[in-house]
Design brief:
Layout: H1 26-37, E1 60-65, E2 70-75, E3 80-86, E4 91-96, E5 102-107, E6 112-117, E7 122-128, E8 133-138, E9 144-149, E10 154-159, E11 164-170, E12 175-180, E13 186-191, E14 196-201, E15 206-212, E16 217-222, E17 228-233, E18 238-243, E19 248-254, E20 259-264, E21 270-275, E22 280-285, E23 290-296, E24 301-306, E25 312-317, E26 322-327, E27 332-338, E28 343-349, E29 359-365, E30 369-370, E31 374-383, E32 394-399, E33 404-410, E34 415-417, E35 422-425, E36 438-444, E37 451-460, E38 463-476, H2 481-504
Parallel strand pairs: 30-38
Antiparallel strand pairs: 1-2, 1-28, 2-3, 4-5, 5-6, 6-7, 8-9, 9-10, 10-11, 12-13, 13-14, 14-15, 16-17, 17-18, 18-19, 20-21, 21-22, 22-23, 24-25, 25-26, 26-27, 29-31, 31-36, 32-35, 32-37, 33-36, 34-35, 37-38
Length: about 500
């Protein structure tokens, strides 16, 4: 339950906090005490998870450790911590972009959001926001992140392309959790201090509705079909169910003491609610809006996130410094993973979608070839993929048809071998670009058929597919071709005889 220090009614006890850290907002002081001491067992604040409706595998879970000022990365295949990422001061919320490439972490006392590159698990940017950032959610298209500024009573809208705040939206008092509808058109913000939910139109970034809920609302989650928002009311011990079409509360579900965060399974059938003061998780059947199971976890569970396949729920236990892994088919804890100090927010990431190259090859010539004459082919390799080549060798192989003989093979930047008709290079080719062309000069035999096809193939550069280009070529008949060849032969004979005489003489 979130209250100012002067209004606490025996829900927690512990050593007095350092008053030198007191700020104008009572809640900021309470937060500083919680971070420094990690002994508060009666207060509950939400850990904001990213959208639960994913369809890809989920190799990593990101757990924010608010007192350690870092993020633990759990490999969900082994349920072990594989790395720890330093972030700002007092991090609380975390959300992962839909493509899995970035995680966004709110740093309450740093007034910033850390951007983590999930391919390297390093912080690549720190975005300044308003006072006391807490919750965060990323839009389904990945273009914007919405951050609740708890101390400022606002929501900061971040352009994820530039990592800058492009809008600030006034909401209720002490906003905590935030969730975005699957269509990306609305953001629902739980205002802990004013006991309501602000509905933001994301096209205009204005509040279009305010919905009264229970006491001290904390976490919020949207069902995959977008029809309902589930709001955990920390002070009421219940969950408000909002019909997002009418923005009215249509049901109230009693859970246990101190509900903090809520996450809905990808199939929309169940909502998992952490109960901080009861040390357990309530499982709500969303069809009947009744609690069908209660799962005991660690001490003071805060954040909860469901894996994309819906088979597991990861719960951050604030006072146990660990994460409980719940099997959602049996609703039992199957693993416990130790993390940093005072874990709070948790989000499950899909496998990062790393853009890769997709090579193309074109082969062409101009006009028709003629028997006994020379012809020229031009081979061009391009990249039609969303990502660059990876620096490994790109190899072009040409296969000439019978009666065509290669005379030369070259191209700027290419290393070519005439005997094998291959060219290679390893410099990186960006998406939408092409390498300088390869020129293949050939001599057409006098008995070459009227129609031949030249074939070239490209491989490598991180593209595992072989790409082939065929160039049908028409060859004109030359009735004097053999005569021309005989003339050429006769011209070469005196030179050959003279050379032989020189060697003998």
């Amino acid at each position: 339950m979130i209250r100012s220090a002067s209004k606490q009614t025996g829900l927690y006890s512990g050593p007095a906090c350092d008053k030198s850290r007191l700020r104008p907002w009572p809640w900021t002081w309470v937060r500083a005490c919680m971070v420094g001491l990690a002994i508060l067992s009666g207060l509950a604040l939400p850990a904001v998870t990213s959208s639960p409706a994913w369809a890809a595998p989920s190799p990593n879970t990101y757990v924010v450790n608010s007192s350690s000022n870092n993020v633990s990365v759990i490999d969900t295949a082994t349920n072990t911590v594989t790395t720890t990422i330093p972030v700002g001061n007092s991090p609380f919320g975390v959300a992962v972009a839909p493509n899995g490439l970035h995680a966004y972490v709110t740093n309450y006392l740093s007034n910033s959001v850390s951007v983590i590159d999930t391919t390297t698990n390093t912080v690549t940017a720190a975005i300044p926001v308003a006072g006391g950032p807490f919750g965060v959610a990323v839009a389904p298209n990945g273009l914007h992140a919405y951050v609740t500024d708890n101390a400022a009573g606002t929501v900061s809208v971040i352009d994820t392309t530039t990592n800058t705040v492009t809008a600030t939206v006034n909401v209720g008092s002490q906003p905590f959790g935030v969730a975005i509808t699957p269509d990306g058109l609305h953001a629902y913000v739980a205002n802990n201090g004013s006991g309501n939910v602000s509905v933001i139109d994301t096209t205009t970034n204005t509040v279009t509705a305010t919905v009264n809920v229970g006491s001290f609302p904390a976490g919020v989650a949207i069902t995959p079909n977008g029809l309902h928002a589930y709001v955990a009311n920390n002070g009421s011990g219940n969950v408000s169910v909002i019909d997002t079409t009418t923005n009215t509360v249509t049901a109230t579900v009693n859970v246990n003491v101190g509900p903090a965060e809520v996450s809905v399974t990808p199939n929309g059938l169940h909502a998992y609610v952490t109960n901080v003061q009861s040390n357990n998780v309530s499982v709500i059947d969303t069809a009947t809006n009744t609690v069908t199971a209660t799962v005991n976890v660690g001490m003071a569970p805060e954040g909860v996130a469901i894996t994309p396949d819906g088979l597991h729920a990861y719960v951050a236990n604030r006072n146990s410094n660990n994460v409980s892994v719940i099997d959602t088919t049996t609703n039992t804890v199957t693993a416990t993973v130790g993390v940093g100090h005072v874990p709070w927010g948790v989000a499950v990431a899909i496998s990062p979608v790393i853009p890769k190259a997709s090579l193309t090859i074109t082969k062409k010539h101009t006009g028709n070839f003629t028997q006994g004459k020379r012809g020229v082919y031009t081979i061009t390799v391009g990249n039609a993929g969303p990502g660059p080549t990876d620096g490994t060798a790109v190899r072009v192989l040409d296969v000439l048809p019978p009666r065509l003989k290669a005379r030369s093979l070259s191209g700027p930047g290419w290393t070519c071998t005439l005997s094998t008709l291959t060219c290679t290079r390893s410099d990186v080719l960006g998406p939408g670009f092409s390498y300088p062309p390869i020129t293949l000069k050939v001599k057409v035999s006098c008995d070459a058929p009227r129609h031949v096809t030249n074939t070239a193939t490209v491989t490598g550069g991180g593209d595992t597919t072989n790409h082939t280009s065929n160039d049908p070529t028409t060859i004109k008949r030359d009735n004097h071709c053999w005569h021309h060849e005989d003339e050429d032969h006769r011209r070469q004979l005196p030179t050959a005889r003279q050379h032989a005489s020189t060697l003998i003489g």
